[in-house]
Structure formats: C-alpha cells, structure tokens
Amino acid sequence: MKILALYTASQSRGPVESQPAVQLRAGCGIVGDRHYRRNAKPEEQITLIESEAIATYNREHQQRVEPHTLRRNVLTEGVDLNALEGREFLLGNIRLRGIELCEPCSVVGHLLAGDLTPPQVIKALLGRGGLRCEILSSGVVRVGDNIATHVTETL
C-alpha cells in the first residue's frame, strides 16, 4: 500500500500538476493547492483515489484516462479507500481521517465524456471516485511513501 503520485492545482478548474512531495497542514490542506486555507472544511483538505479504480474504468470503457484528469490529490496502490471512510490512517507519517466517499461530479463527467455521456461517466465511477479526508497532523508526504490502514490508539 503506497502513494503512486501526488497532484495539486493552484486554482479551481486550473491545470493539475504532478508533485514529487507535498506539505500537508492539519486543518488547512495541501500547501499550494486550490483548497488550502485556514480552518478548511475537513472534506475539502485532501482527496485520494485508487489506481486500481482508474484501471478498471479504463478497461471497462476502453479509455485511457490519466489519473490527474480526475483531479484527486493522491493516487494510491493496494488500499481499499472505501473501507477507510470514518477511520484514521497514515499517509506516509501523516495522520488522516476518511470523511466521505468522493463521488464523481458533473465536472468530472464532462471532462471524461467522449464515447460516454457525462451521466454515464458519473454512473461508471460511482463508488470508485476516491475518498475525501481530513488532515490530522502536519508534515511532508512523498511519492513512494507507504499507507498504513491499521492505526493504533497511541498515535
């Protein structure tokens, strides 16, 4: 279970940029990202998506959607993000809490539309759109860092 890629966008609907590392601030978000602010809503601080979900979507719909297109911050491998809703876990050494599933919206529907209509895209990604999380501790995460889903009470 690890981080495959990190992405930020400095402005809403602006270009998404790949990052080798990002700084997370508890209660604020990712430094330099469009959602970063003091006392940010927990569900707006950071988003994760499974590489396996994107691969499944591509295989089922004969597409080549690149992970950054979905506008999530963290691309994961080997972790069931849906199972982390309501739970604490570690992204590298940073504590997060899964807040809610990050279901696809009309923006993603329109971005991926082609052979599928926007509503078909949204339906195809339901339950596979990732996880919205609250950042509980501050620090840096890097591509290649591990993800630990069994966090003990002593953290």
Quick structural summary:
This protein has helices at residues 51-61, 106-112, 118-125, and strands spanning 2-8, 17-19, 21-25, 29-30, 46-50, 74-77, 88-91, 94-101, 131-135, 139-142, 147-148. By secondary structure, it is an alpha+beta fold.
How would you characterize the overall build of this protein?
- This protein has 155 residues and is α+β, with helices and mostly antiparallel strands.
- It has three helices and eleven strands; from the N terminus they run E-E-E-E-E-H-E-E-E-H-H-E-E-E.
- The protein has helices at residues 51-61, 106-112, 118-125, and strands at residues 2-8, 17-19, 21-25, 29-30, 46-50, 74-77, 88-91, 94-101, 131-135, 139-142, 147-148.
- The strands form two sheets. It has an eight-stranded mixed beta sheet. Strands 4-3-10 form a three-stranded antiparallel beta sheet, with no helix packed on it.
- Helix 2 (106-112) packs across helix 3 (118-125).
- It is globular, with a radius of gyration of 15 Å.
- The model has no long low-confidence stretch (mean pLDDT 91).
